[in-house]
Design brief:
- The complex is a heterodimer of chains A (292) and B (280).
- In chain A, helix 4 runs parallel beside helix 6 and helix 5 crosses helix 6.
- By secondary structure, chain A is of the alpha/beta class.
- In chain A, a hairpin with a 5-residue loop joins strand 1 and strand 2.
- Chain A contains nine helices and nine strands.
- The N and C termini of chain A lie far apart (52 Å).
- Chain B has 280 residues and is mainly α.
- Chain B folds into two domains: 41 residues; 193 residues, MetI-like (MetI-like fold), CATH 1.10.3720.10.
- Chain B has ten helices and no strands.
- In chain B, helix 3 runs antiparallel to helix 8 and helix 5 crosses helix 6.
- Chain B is flat and about 75 Å long.
- The two termini of chain B are 19 Å apart.
- Classes of the chains: A alpha/beta (292), B mainly alpha (280).
- At the A-B interface, strand 5 of A face helix 7 and helix 8 of B.
Chain lengths: 292, 280
């Protein structure tokens, strides 16, 4: 099994390489509480500390109600009522920060605007940035090409399939060249085949764009297929339970990967970690996470 | 989109011919039934009137109405009067609808976007909405006089409530996901309102405009019944007063056609303002 050997050799080098790169963002002691209707305090997130390196892909894995979406909303800038600190390190270093979004989000369900064609859907994502019109259309063309939708610039979302619409949403996020690309279960709404194809495409896109990614998912296989590190969260209040480094190189094949014995054993390990929490969240309050 | 055109293979050509034929057949059936039903009703009416089953003085045979129409249209004076009546009504409709719809959409969107505006106008709008608009027509005459102004204001009021409330709920209940996208991508306020918030509420706004059109038509004819020297409502009422029933029916036909035109205009608005909506 030479291929296995080759992969594990790359694996050896990768963590040290990453360690040398810059910090993209540093989350320290992040917390978020909600007030229930009865006035009780409900802790959704607690003591989240995480350093995300530049160009790293971090998957956040946990049972539903573990505060994954609370974390996402905070990082996306949709929720400002949190405690703790987020240090967007690259913002100070990067001279082109005005042409980049701090974070751009790909949402779980279709978030394209049905009244705009594909290109306008991309361009409106850039309207908050200091980007010249020429640069904007250059970016739109580049990222539409990257997600394989070059021929669909003028098409409207209702003329596209679900997978294609999600590609538009991904291209829209990429076009802002964000310091952090946030993905909230972006493939969860797609069928199994499309999901596998898209996983492979995402790997290709990220290696092209060198994006820093936080990828929220409840799918263990997907987390293993895509991430450099996997953060496992506990049930409410959401804390970091474990951080697992993924020992596969970036040039992985999401299908072939599943043949590796290590994939299976890691999947089982992670499943045990998560299963504990699923049990707890079912025993416990079991309520749905409050949406503000 | 030309990107999705069927390829020119012989199989797809037969298939598409088949589909097109089926579609044509369906359309033909729809048209036949849609036109056939009213034609049958009119024929039955004609038979009932001719056989004396209904009192021909109050329910003139359709042929009587047609004869009266032809006679009226041949008389240049009468023809000019009818035309003036139509013009008067349409003028009130267009001005009243434009004012009411503009104010309604602006107020509704404003209320949805700003809490203070919503808090200050909301209770008043909700409390006055159920009042039948025609009930305050006398008051409007006191304020705006017997002329066109009071009628235009009456129409504008009716249209205002329809468009204001539907715009308000359209924006308030627009997809929260679209709002999240706007915020997460830090889209500037003006762009957000004009390119995301309002388009997102557009289906609801257009529904309000269509309801407003119907409301405007009811109000203009009712107002002209009560107080007017010209207009289609006056034409109908006047005919009834002198017991010229065929002429009255003719007025009804004109009002009916106007309503039909309003529906078509509503559909035009729909296609124009929400081209992405699935075709009904």
């Amino acid at each position: 099994m030479t291929s296995t050997l080759a992969t594990s050799q790359i694996v050896e080098k990768l963590p040290t390489e990453l360690a040398q790169t810059q910090t993209a963002l540093n989350i320290s002691n992040l917390g978020r509480s909600f007030l229930t209707r009865k006035g009780a305090v409900l802790e959704a997130l607690s003591e989240i500390s995480l350093r995300v390196r530049r160009s790293e892909v971090v998957a956040v894995l946990g049972p539903s109600g573990c505060g994954k979406s609370s974390l996402l909303r905070i990082l996306a800038g949709l929720d400002e009522d949190y405690t703790g600190e987020i240090d967007w390190n690259l913002e100070q270093i990067d001279s082109s920060a005005a042409q980049r979004l701090r974070s751009a989000t790909v949402f779980q369900s279709d978030s394209t605007f049905p009244w705009m064609n594909v290109e306008k859907n991309l361009l409106i994502g850039l309207s908050g940035l200091r980007v010249e019109a020429q640069e904007a259309s250059r970016r739109a063309a580049r990222y539409l090409g990257l997600v394989g939708l070059s021929g669909f610039r003028g098409a409207f979302p209702h003329e596209l399939s679900g997978g294609m619409r999600q590609r538009v949403a991904i291209a829209r996020a990429l076009a802002t060249e964000p310091l952090l690309l946030l993905m909230d279960e972006p493939l969860a709404a797609l069928d199994a085949q499309t999901r596998l194809v898209m996983q492979q495409e995402l790997l290709g896109i990220w290696s092209e764009t060198r994006s820093t990614v936080i990828y929220i998912t409840h799918d263990i296989g997907e987390a293993l297929a895509l991430a450099d590190r996997i953060v496992v969260m506990t049930a409410r209040p959401g804390r970091i339970k474990a951080i697992q480094t993924v020992p596969f190189g970036r040039d992985r094949d999401v299908v072939e990967l599943r043949r590796e014995p290590e994939f299976g054993s890691l999947e089982a390990d992670l499943w045990k970690l998560v299963a504990d929490e699923v049990g707890q969240s079912l025993d416990g309050s079991g309520r749905k996470e409050p949406k503000e | 989109m030309s990107d999705f055109a069927l390829s020119g293979s012989p199989v797809s050509a037969t298939l598409s011919r088949k589909v097109i034929r089926a579609r044509r057949l369906r359309l033909l059936q729809q048209l036949t039934l849609g036109i056939g039903f009213p034609v049958i009703v009119v024929l039955l009416w004609q038979a009932a009137a001719v056989t004396g089953l209904v009192d021909r003085r109050f329910f003139p045979a359709p042929s009587d109405t047609i004869a009266a129409t032809i006679a009226l249209l041949q008389d240049p004076d009468e023809r000019a009067r009818l035309l003036l009546d139509m013009l008067a009504t349409y003028r009130r409709l267009v001005i009243g609808f434009t004012i009411g719809a503009t104010l309604g959409v602006v107020t509704g969107v404003g209320m949805a976007l700003s809490r203070p505006i919503r808090d200050s106008l909301g209770p008043t709008v909700s409390a006055t909405f159920p009042t039948p608009k025609l009930a305050i027509f006398p008051l409007l005459i006191v304020i705006f006089g017997l002329g066109d102004a009071s009628k235009v204001v009456l129409i504008a009021l009716g249209v205002f409530y329809m468009t204001c409330l539907s715009s308000l709920s359209g924006v308030l209940y627009a997809s929260p996901l679209h709002r999240d996208v706007a915020k997460a991508f830090r889209i500037p306020a003006w762009t957000r309102w004009t390119r995301i918030v309002v388009p997102s509420a557009m289906p609801s706004i257009v529904t309000g405009l269509k309801l407003g059109l119907g409301q405007a038509l009811i109000l203009v004819v009712s107002a002209e019944f009560v107080s007017a020297q010209e207009g289609l409502g006056h034409f109908i009422w006047d005919s009834w007063q002198v017991l010229d029933v065929p002429r009255m029916f003719m007025g009804l036909v004109v009002v009916g056609l106007t309503g039909g035109a309003a529906v078509l205009f509503g559909e035009f608005l729909e296609r124009r303002l929400i081209p992405w909506a699935p075709k009904s």
